[in-house]
Amino acid sequence: ATSAEVPGALMVSLNWRVSNHVVLKFFPSTLIFYGFLEVVALTAVVAAVFPVVGRGLGRTAFGGMAWGEVGTLGAFLVALLLWAHYWLHDHSFHSGKAILNTPWERVARTWGLTATLFISLALLPASKKSL
Fold it and tell me: pTM here?
């Protein structure tokens, strides 16, 4: 079996052995996506539980944006940068075969996977009304 990342990668997949027959795999892209969602959700819960935090996040920061919007945008930009770094630099496409792993293919695959990230996030507002 080959690793999903190149040697010396900053972000690597984690394997958590639960038993002799069960190993949980945590891929960096999955942790980035759900980590971003968790930060947004926990911030919303804290703002709902503590009204002073909610009022602070609702205050206008600049450009007509609230501090909560600025924070969400900042968290998204961090997630996007980590996402792009992982797919452009750290991930090993084609099991690391250099002849198949060209820079243009890495860029094309990264664009495609970034589109998947945007589509996944775009489904969230639709799912809010589906219950």
Answer: 0.80
